[in-house]
Design goal:
Blueprint lengths: L1 E6 L3 H13 L8 E6 L4 H8 L4 E7 L8 H11 L4 E6 L4 H8 L5 E4 L4 H16 L4 E5 L4 E5 L3 E6 L6 E5 L3 E4 L3 H6 L5 E5 L2 E4 L3 E5 L4 E4 L4 E2 L7 H11 L1
Length: 241
């Protein structure tokens, strides 16, 4: 189960967060429980100390009580390094103070600067990266592999061997399968960007369509990009935003 914990004492903001969570379409395959708080309570403390659930905390930095959102986040990190923390605030001047006080904050979102779109994007990103257990599975007579989708950066069809090479951050695997058939075994984060290359769009930092390469989030540059596939890639990002 995934638990989303909202700590917000402004009624209108809390209603907006409820709407955002209702609108998201990523909870269909997961059991999700949402808890709302306006301040630090014993129930909230118990949730923090229960590390059995995966959690996303959405918290206002400044609460109208003695215990602030920063104080709560510090307590979370004393007991839990796995859950994600998203801060929402009226004041961007609080960002630096919070960064100095709390380790591993996923994002800061200003309430009056496109909060709805930014919060949706942040939650989708967390689900894709952290709560993503989908795997690519392959078996033949000699060996079998199982690779998390999130670990795959790109796939390339080698002309000489006629095999598909699956690249991850640390290694690569060769399989005997047509590239188009391999694509059908993956989900829609994977797109053709060249007739010989499929990329995990969630792992791409930037595309240079003019020079024919893309840069991955691990710093590697891959020279295998064709403008023929640009439209489908852009449509994916437009939908995701």
């Amino acid at each position: 189960m995934i638990r989303i914990v909202v700590v917000e004492d402004d009624k209108n903001t809390q209603l907006l967060v409820k709407k955002i969570l209702r609108d998201l379409d990523i909870f269909q395959d997961e059991e999700v429980k949402v808890n709302y708080f306006t301040k630090y309570t014993k129930e909230l403390k118990d949730i923090i100390l229960d590390t059995a659930d995966r959690k996303i905390y959405i918290m206002d930095i400044q609460l109208e009580t003695r215990v602030s959102g920063i104080d709560i986040a510090k307590y979370i990190r004393e007991n839990d390094w796995e859950s994600e923390i998203i801060f929402i605030t009226n004041h961007d001047k609080m960002f630096e103070t919070t960064y100095r006080s709390v380790y591993e904050v996923f994002d800061f979102i200003e309430k009056f600067h496109d909060m709805e779109a930014k919060l949706k994007k942040a939650i989708r990103t967390i689900f894709k990266r952290n709560f993503d257990n989908k795997m690519f599975k392959y078996r033949n007579n000699n060996f079998s592999i199982q690779i998390y989708y999130r670990s795959i950066t790109h796939l390339y069809r080698d002309k000489e061997s006629r095999k598909v090479i699956i690249y991850t951050d640390k290694t690569h695997y060769s399989i005997i399968m047509p590239l188009t058939e391999t694509l059908n075994c993956l989900d829609d984060r994977f797109k053709m960007v060249h007739r010989a290359c499929i990329v995990n769009l969630d792992r791409v930092e930037s595309f240079n369509w003019g020079k024919g390469y893309f840069a991955l989030d691990n710093g590697k540059k891959i020279d295998c990009l064709s403008k023929k596939f640009k439209k489908e890639v852009e449509e994916y990002y437009e939908r995701d935003n």
